Amino acid sequence: MQQAKIGRLLVVGVGLIGGSFALALKAARACREVIGVTSGRNTCDEAKRLGIVDRASVCLEEVLPQLEPGDLVFVAVPTLAVESVFVQLKRYLPAGVTVTDGASVKGSVVRAAEAVWGGVPSFLVPGHPIAGSERSGVTAARDDLYRDHRIILTPLEDTGVDHLRRVEQVWQAVGAEVLKMPVEEHDEVLAATSHLPHVIAFSLVDTLAHDAENENIFRYAAGGFRDFTRIASSDPVMWRDIMLANREAILKAIDLYSLNLSSLRGAIAAGDSGALMGVFTRAKAARDYFTKMLAKQAYSDSMQAQEITFIAQPANAVNGKLRVPGDKSMSHRSIMLGSLAEGVTEVEGFLEGEDALATLQAFRDMGVVIEGPDNGRVVIHGVGLRGLKAPSGPLYLGNSGTSMRLLAGLLAGQRFDVTLTGDESLSKRPMNRVANPLRDMGANIETGPEGRPPLIIKGGSPMKGLHYPLPMASAQVKSAVLLAGLYAEGRTSTVEPAPTRDHTERMLQGFGYAVSRDGPEAALDGNGALKSCRIDVPADISSAAFFMVAASISPGSDIVLEHVGINPTRDGVINILRAMGGDIELLNTREVGGEPVADIRVRYAPLRGIRIPEEQVPLAIDEFPALFVAAACAQGETVLTGAEELRVKESDRIQAMADGMVALGVTARATADGIVIQGAEAARVFAGGTVDSLGDHRIAMAFAVASLRAKDTIRILHCANVATSFPNFAELATGVGLKLQLA
Ligand SMILES: O=C(O)C1=C[C@@H](OP(=O)(O)O)[C@@H](O)[C@H](O)C1
Ligand SMILES: C=C(OP(=O)(O)O)C(=O)O
Description:
By secondary structure, the protein is an alpha/beta fold. The chain contains 26 helices and 32 strands. Helix 20 packs parallel to helix 22 (624-632).
């Protein structure tokens, strides 16, 4: 049985909010008695009959003196009636009793307290449950109204620590999540998210109800009207009070909304289809995002937002045909170049993973109309090289290094200022590798300490072409410089120390922008134009790699990966697995939209350890976590060198994989620029155990694949970011034979 959190509960106002609190506390056995105070005898009787209160009274001053230290008073009357309750509390409330409230406006509660006590007393903890319904009154009370809902408390400087803790504990006892916020912030947030929608719903219904045609309007009103206006059935007194109590913040919200409504009116009047699509696609994306957040699915803000653990039980083989999601690198670039093109670009096969969605959202935030994604289809209404608009706030790029580095280049030559931010992992990644050459081109860019994000880019800097020999083999750096070159005076060229993925060069050419390529050098002239086109994004070889390794290490496996991009700057995983003895066949090889594509058949074959040729490293840079699992299952030693770049990915992938493999009983030793792995021939190479993916999608998926040769269950921590590159990994993996569960 749950321990009582408080002594007695006195609910002042036994309606939906107060009554539900009383019922929930009783259900949680968090208090020993509930006393209700209501304004009418009938409500008292009803509250007792419904079992909401143990006893009830219409007279607050009669009940208050009976309270003792440790008891709690919950004031749940309409906002403007709070002050009269406080007057009584001042006279009759015994010391040691805690008071909280449920009013929707906190500024007015604080003002009422100041009027009565001359300040906010330490025992008063203003609060607001973000739960409710259009129903009101004692009969609407429910014991689960607050379960999984948020409660905002707005404690003040003088609020007593014990009182605050008591209020927090009772809300938690009824299953609510407690947040804290300053009073002013609460009132502004609520004005926008709750009070304004009520104003609009009341006003819409009132407008239509007074129309001469109202009968027809209500008779034929379809689902939309019903959904939209549900809240106009709410309690008028409560809402009148809220409007008066939070007047300033609500007026601000109404003014902003009126401005937007009148510009939407203007767009409709002018037949401006672009402006209408802009508003509607942005709003749809925002609404979908919000639905995903409520469903606790990640979207651009994954690591902190949720915890996912993979539980991978030993499995035997993978079999079947599957198409993994679209290529991440190409998906990013399709949005970037489509936005800068003139005309409408249609993309098929777009990766609906968080990284690519972060890029998409960034361009929406800069005024580009983008329809979709809808089953991998995206339609981008390009604005031309000079058509981006200043975003209203920082561009948040989640976990995506590619988004931040390529955008840095593309935005360095704009006329507006912009700040690029990211999640905890991205905020630790080095950005001077792009900031330095961009500064050499004339850009004004500041980074955080040690060259880490955020990137603060000041617009209006004239850019000039640069010849840039890259200090490291990085497609992101190469692309950032070339994209900045689009805005530079004269010619910009890059020379890479080893071939890296060339999607930027290929796709620019697909958009009709001339890029000259000569061995390691790529060059373009600034101030040209991109012409819209169609893009077919093939399946991502980096995602396919997990299944290539899965099939290679588990006897009896035979798998076909359909429509995979096999660009020669990305095919290191095929070359390395083949060198280890892997059985990989490329079927139906073809060219789609300027990129080579094939169906890849992989069958089990015994692998042997190798010294991985350094020239393969950039061609397989993202596939090493999976390849290390293959190495652990190969006969003999595998040695990787020249791969120090792996240390600055979403995690330090050398250390993360070495630690995880050692935890699973494999002999692996991290070196400064690689790893040495002793392969084992046993049927079950990996012991069971727990490994930490450190929030790195590729580490998480690699250890899931290891379960095919594991003795016991592998638990993989912090796997939410798998959604950045491969949102349906678990579903596809279990479909072909892995035994993977999410917890
Ligand atoms: O340009 C790209 O799309 C990418 C380049 C690579 O990064 P580096 O350029 O840092 O090697 C790769 O690791 C990343 O996943 C995607
Ligand atoms: C390194 C990766 O991506 P990014 O640099 O875009 O975060 C990756 O996907 O493995």
